[in-house]
Amino acid sequence: MHRTIFTTPVVNTLLRGLSLAFLKLTGWKVEGSLPPDCPKCVLIAAPHTSNWDLPYTLMVGFALRLNLYWMGKESIFRPPFGGVMRWLGGISVDREKSTNLVAASVEALRAADGTVQLTVPPEGTRSKTRYWKTGFYHIAQGAQVPIVMAYMDYARKVSGLGPVFHPTGDIERDMETIKAFYAPFKGKNPDQSGS
After folding, report:
1. In degrees rounded to 5, what are phi and psi of residue 150?
2. How many CA atoms are closer than 13 Å to the CA of 97, on its beta-carbon side?
3. What is the distance in angstroms between the CA of the first residue and the CA of the last residue of the chain?
4. 46-55, 82-91, 124-133 — which is least confidently predicted?
5. CA atoms within 13 A on the CB side of 132
6. What pTM does this model have?
7. Domain total in the chain
8. pLDDT score for 98
9. Adjacent-strand bridge partners of 69
């Protein structure tokens, strides 16, 4: 995994302080923590309905002392902002090509040294969707790492880390359990949430 803002020493400390101050001033509450037995995991980023999700996710990541990597559409990684997006933890995803993103993500998680939290929005987009994609599930299962249910509830101004979930292999039952956890949370644009 490439170097990011989360692994840049002085900048990390400064941005953590600024993130905590901004979240407090704007009325946001951060909950939960990453269990010590989860140095590598897949974070579900849901609900994902707005461009504002990324800056808030980064601030919550600083507040919780995470080492976040996140997936974004290829167009936001084009010059002149590509380098900045990668430094913010971004991994470019080309939705038009049939590359095996799951296999590449599994390999990257296995090969990574230290703590890594790969953040995946199950909707795959902030636009309205009917169904969640299951890539996050297959990545976690393939890399043999747990899923941590991260959330952002704009209605209550609460964000954080929920329970740790270990995939059982029964994807239909597991997805029902996961979606039930997310049912009460509202994105910035709740009418765009998938089911």
Report:
1. -90, 145
2. 8
3. 31
4. 124-133
5. 25
6. 0.88
7. 1
8. 47
9. 118
* Amino acid making up residue 164: V
Which amino acid would we find at residue 159? S
Sign of the CA dihedral with 20 first, then 121, 82, and 86 last:
positive
Nearest alpha carbon to residue 159 among 51, 33, 17: 33
Asked whether 177 and 164 are in contact (CB, 8 A), the reply is: no
Q: Cα angle vertex 123, ends 82, 149, to 5°?
A: 95
**Residues 6+ positions from 24 with CB-CB distance below 8 Å:** none
Domain range holding 149? 5-192
* CB contact set of 183 (below 8 Å; sequence gap of 6+): none
If you search the block for the tokens 């579900």, which residue do you land on? 44
pLDDT tens, position by position, 111-131? 888 899 999 988 755 455 557
Position 144 confidence tier, pLDDT thresholds 50, 70, 90: very high
The sign one gets for the Cα dihedral 187, 191, 192, 193 is positive
